[in-house]
Amino acid sequence: TEPVPVFGQSGDDRYGNAEKMMTKGVPVLPHGLFNSVEKLGEDGEGLREYVDWLATRAVELGPDGYEPTIHVDVYGVLGDVLGAPYDRAAVTDYFATLAEAAGPFDVQVEGPMDAGGREEQIHDMAELRDGLASAGVDVDIVADEWCNTFEDVRAFVDAGAADLVQVKTPDLGGVQRSAEAVRYCEGTDTRAYLGGTCNETVTSARTCAHVALATDAAQTLAKPGMGFDEGFMVVTNEMRRALARMRPTPEATADD
After folding, report:
1. Which of these is catalytic: 20, 24, 39, 168?
2. What string of pLDDT tens digits covers the 256 residues of the chain?
């Protein structure tokens, strides 16, 4: 009965597009595209500084009462910087600095490492999640690498290896498979992020908006494109249209 929170993706324009998102009050932002050590920083300082900037600008630019979730995708590069094992203090301390930089806002880190295979990835993600919980660090981790098919989603959820799993709509096949993957998270402590890729069509994006509403996903991706505005409008407007059609007309209300 309410729109699903939309996740905006900035592409490499991680400052300009993030500011666009804030002025529009986007619930989850900005992806960030941290896909190299050069962007992330040799010690992860680039990501930490960016999260701090996001928290500051969100207060300056966002509408009254704006409380976005900060979601950054690091494409496994953070694992290259920090290294295993992922439950040791050096790793959890770094994640604690991200939480501190985010101030009052929640933080989600997508694809913290790329272990080279599904079972290895599940092990490393679960190790990191357990380490963060033991250290009391309030940062959620999102399964991306090696989480592609419905069977992959099920494996990550069953292992408790992520706070969120990305449901990659093109990889799942028919839309009913994406819906099935989102529904599989029900009753677990793992939430479903109905994602995909910037390289989809408007028809795909509009269809996914209905899947997100029907399954009550935790968040859904603004797509297509990485210019942000267009994808955000496509997905948001489609959800608003669908919800408007569901509302009873004044005549129907009067008859009741």
Report:
1. 168
2. 999 999 999 999 999 999 999 999 999 999 999 999 999 999 999 999 999 999 999 999 999 999 999 999 999 999 999 999 999 999 999 999 999 999 999 999 999 999 999 999 999 999 999 999 999 999 999 999 999 999 999 999 999 999 999 999 999 999 999 999 999 999 999 999 999 999 999 999 999 999 999 999 999 999 999 889 999 999 999 999 999 998 887 765 555 5
Residue located via tokens 């490393």: 124
Cis peptide bond prior to 68, omega within 30° of 0: no
- pTM for the whole structure: 0.95
Angle formed at CA 152 by CA 151 and CA 155, multiple of 5 degrees: 85
Q: 223 catalytic, yes or no?
A: no
- Measured CA to CA, the distance from residue 161 to residue 60 in angstroms comes to 35
Q: Extract the tokens encoding 90.
A: 């050096």
